[in-house]
Write a structure and sequence with these properties.
Elements lengths: L5 H23 L11 H17 L6 H17 L8 H28 L4 H17 L2 H16 L4 H16 L2 H19 L2 E11 L3 E6 L10 E5 L6 E11 L3 E10 L6 H6 L4 E5 L1 H10 L10 E5 L7 E6 L10 E6 L2 E18 L2 E17 L4 E3 L10 E4 L11 E4 L6 E3 L3 H6 L2 E4 L6 H14 L3 E5 L5 H4 L6 H16 L15 H17 L6 E4 L7 E3 L4 E6 L2 E5 L2 E3 L2 H16 L9 E6 L1 H4 L10 H16 L4 E7 L7 H4 L4 E4 L5 H11 L1 H5 L8 E6 L8 E5 L2 H11 L26
Parallel strand pairs: 16-24, 16-25, 17-18, 17-23, 23-24
Antiparallel strand pairs: 1-2, 1-6, 2-5, 3-4, 3-6, 4-5, 7-8, 7-13, 8-11, 9-10, 9-13, 10-11, 11-12, 14-15, 14-27, 19-22, 20-21, 25-26, 26-27
Helix pairs in contact: 1-2, 1-7, 1-8, 2-6, 2-7, 3-4, 3-6, 4-5, 4-6, 6-7, 14-15, 15-16, 16-18
Protein name: Helicase HerA central domain-containing protein
Keywords: Membrane, Transmembrane, Transmembrane helix
Organism: Marinomonas primoryensis
């Protein structure tokens, strides 16, 4: 029975008192019993029960209340004490009733004393006594034995009075007639009011377990879609369903609905009483709002339902039947409630399907596919993977569109949302290698430049091999151009020194040995200095050095004129890449490190580290192997690479397979998709041909998300504005240019 308000309890008390007055008029000829022993049951006991249970302590009894009940009860017994004239049976009854009051009084006093004693054990005993008193110190428990004692002692020889007093006790103590009347009136009033706020419009045509029912309209008016309706099921709890779409005809239009909540049994008795079994009713919006608030249902979500979970879904992959196609697109986020958790998925594709329903009737629908993103952790601002799958036919909600608010540590966001994507660990981005793959003009270089700026702000030095000369412009704030031009001049000078000179030892022939030494000196100074230089940029095509591949031999230049010499070959950009990579590894190998120290950037990597079948010169195969070996060995010394290419098939897989973090942008070639499918999954890989500009599938150890995701990368200008407010580029001090040593004359040029 529902708890009554204070006003309702006063009314209930008045009804019980009126019943008592009627009973007294019938039994005693007056509206109230006579004063004395004959009225003891009424004035002392029954009134105390009614007032105490309805006004003073209607819900629970405290130890103080127990004292206020037990003391008057004991005193009233003492006032009617006729011990000398009572027979032995009455004395035993009197002693038992008095003992109950005294016991309650003693327990109440002990509870108060123990609670204030300060000892934990005594306080624990006090708490147990308090629980005991909440049950046995109620006025009904204390005063009902007194009423029975009065009936035995003073009314035993008067059957009419015994019957009337028993009826009075039954109607007021055992079951309060006032409470019953007040509750009945409330239910009638609520039922009448609820009946005016609902209308039955459909009946259940079929069940599609779990969670789906088909509704057949019983009126001419249409059943609106995206409408929450009340369904009374005679075999289980009543439920709230959301109408989804029209699915056919069967003696009327059939509407499909999905369950969104199961109502608690007995909580809506008035509503259940006015709706027939297996019927569907539309509830007035105001009343529906009250129910949804009580059941913790978000009414606004009904408009965001776009489908229901379809068969073949798994932990990683979600298939759902689309019921609202108006705002769905690739990359959007959808939500499914799994084990009371909000799990997000990202749409990666879809297809049309058709099923035969009956004879020639068919049912066509859209089936969307999404990949699990995880559960959003608001405190850590990242997604964590959820290790279970949703129930079939569970509703799928489309996440609302939000404006992206860029923050310094975010590299992008999920399309049409403010769910942000971050770098999980900047050191892992370097030491475990990163690749940015995609066709020309989709934003690869801008993404790479942002990543490099983040690395340099954390103290990681960058050696960039750039055939495009773009990085020196975009990263001009980190690039000390006057100083670096002096360094490049030394390298160019080294390529000219001994350019045409051959040696008996092929390793010393040509200008390549001088260039290697110059690279070592330049990189050693760069890596080990602490004067703020964090960016070194080389264009491998700029250094046209010569090398000697074999030992010299004798040849006849003209008849009878023998000479000795060896051919010299030009060094390719691939070989320059090998020299720089191996030199950096040699410098760093003096000390092992778990943190990243240097990142090698291979821009246009298909030209710097080509696959064996894509090389221009035969020596490039050996050079690419040397570069790959340096990358493989570099992690333990804090060395890694950032590889950028538009031709995945033409880049050596030895390095590409070592890239633990992947940014996959728009790609058309099947070779690239097949390769990426092993990293980001076949579903994301097949969608790469339709990925928009400045969008990328991001996955790997460098990501803050545990699963592959499709994200929109930051706008370059927005990133610079936000990021450089917190991370200022270095300020370079004015330094003298490094003097270029004059070329010493060779002994062949001496005049003597």
């Amino acid at each position: 029975m529902n708890k009554l308000s204070q006003k309702e309890r006063v009314v209930s008390l008045g009804i019980d008192l009126l019943l008592l007055l009627i009973i007294c008029a019938i039994g005693f000829g007056n509206l109230y019993p006579p004063v004395g022993d004959s009225g003891f049951w009424f004035y002392t006991a029954l009134l105390s029960v009614l007032v105490g249970s309805k006004i003073v302590t209607p819900f629970y009894v405290k130890p103080v209340d127990a004292i206020s009940y037990s003391v008057p009860a004991f005193v009233s017994l003492m006032l009617v004490n006729s011990w000398a004239t009572w027979p032995i049976e009455t004395k035993i009854a009197f002693f038992s009733v008095s003992a109950l009051s005294v016991s309650i009084l003693v327990f109440a006093l002990l509870a108060i004393i123990f609670n204030n004693w300060g000892d934990e054990k005594l306080q624990e005993i006090s708490n147990k006594i308090r629980i005991f008193l909440e049950v046995f110190a109620k006025p009904q428990i204390i005063y009902t034995p007194i009423i029975i004692f009065a009936m035995y002692s003073y009314h035993l020889g008067k059957p009419n009075e015994l019957i009337l007093i028993s009826i009075a006790m039954l109607l007021t103590v055992a079951t309060s007639a006032g409470d019953v009347i007040v509750n009945t009136f409330n239910r009638i009033r609520k039922t009448t009011k609820i009946g005016q706020r609902i209308s039955s419009i459909a009946e259940i045509a079929a069940y599609q377990q779990p969670n789906i029912i088909l509704l057949r309209q019983i009126k001419d008016n249409d059943l609106p879609l995206k409408k929450i309706v009340y369904v009374k099921d005679k075999y289980s709890n009543s439920k709230l369903f959301l109408t989804l779409d029209l699915v056919g005809r069967d003696n009327g239009v059939l509407t499909r609905a999905v369950e969104i909540a199961s109502l608690q049994t007995g909580q809506y008795k008035e509503l259940e009483s006015v709706v027939a079994n297996d019927s569907v009713a539309v509830i007035e919006d105001e009343f529906l709002q009250e129910i949804c608030v009580s059941e913790n249902i978000d009414l606004t979500q009904r408009d965001s339902v776009v489908g229901i979970v379809a068969p073949d879904s798994s932990i990683e992959r979600l298939f759902f039947e689309v019921v609202d196609n108006s705002n769905i697109e690739e990359g959007r986020l959808v939500t499914v409630i799994v084990q009371n958790k909000k799990v997000l998925y990202q749409i990666v594709g879809g297809l049309t399907k058709e099923e035969v329903v009956y004879q020639k009737n068919t049912y066509g629908y859209l089936r969307a596919q999404a990949q699990q993103v995880g559960i959003w952790n608001e405190e850590r601002r990242k997604f964590t993977q959820f290790s279970w799958l949703p129930n079939i036919n569970a509703p799928v909600y489309l996440e609302a569109q939000e404006d992206y608010v860029i923050e310094p540590d975010t590299i992008g966001h999920f399309p049409n949302s403010n769910y942000q994507v971050k770098i999980g660990n900047i050191n892992h981005l370097v030491t475990h290698n990163t690749a940015i793959l995609g066709i020309l003009g989709v934003g690869k270089s801008m993404l790479a430049i942002e990543l490099l700026e983040r690395m340099m702000s954390k103290g990681i030095k960058v050696v960039c091999l750039d055939l495009t000369d773009q990085y020196s412009t975009e990263l001009s704030s980190y690039y000390n151009a006057p100083y670096e031009e002096t360094c490049l001049t030394k390298l160019r000078t080294a390529t000219e020194q001994d350019r045409d000179a051959w040696q008996e030892n092929p390793e010393h022939g040509g200008s390549l040995p001088n260039l290697k030494n110059a690279f070592f000196e330049d990189l050693e100074e760069f890596i080990n200095n602490t004067d703020g230089h964090v960016l070194k940029i080389y264009n491998p095509a700029e250094f046209v050095a010569t090398r000697q591949d074999r030992a010299p031999g004798s040849f006849q230049s003209t008849p009878g004129n023998w000479q000795r010499g060896a051919p010299l070959f030009s060094v390719t950009p691939v070989e320059i890449t090998k020299i720089v990579s191996e030199t950096v590894l040699e410098i760093l190998s003096a000390e092992m490190s778990d943190n990243a120290k240097v990142c090698l950037v291979y821009e246009e990597a298909h030209s710097l580290v080509p696959e064996w079948n894509s090389v221009v010169a035969e020596g490039d195969k050996h050079a690419t192997s040397g570069t790959a070996r340096a990358i493989l060995q570099g992690r333990k010394f804090g060395l890694g690479c950032l590889l950028i290419t538009q031709r995945t098939a033409n880049v050596t897989k030895t390095i590409l397979n070592q890239c633990n973090t992947i940014f996959a942008m728009r790609t058309f070639d099947d070779t690239g998709k097949d390769f990426l499918g092993n990293y980001i999954g076949r579903d994301y890989a097949q969608s790469l041909s339709s990925v928009k500009e400045r969008h990328a599938v991001f996955f790997g150890r460098g990501s803050s998300c545990e699963n592959p995701i499709l994200m929109k990368v930051n706008d370059r200008d927005d990133f610079r504005r936000i990021y450089r407010e917190r991370h200022r580029p270095p300020v370079f001090t004015q330094v003298d240019t490094i003097p270029v040593p004059e070329e010493q004359p060779s002994e062949h040029d001496m005049p003597f």
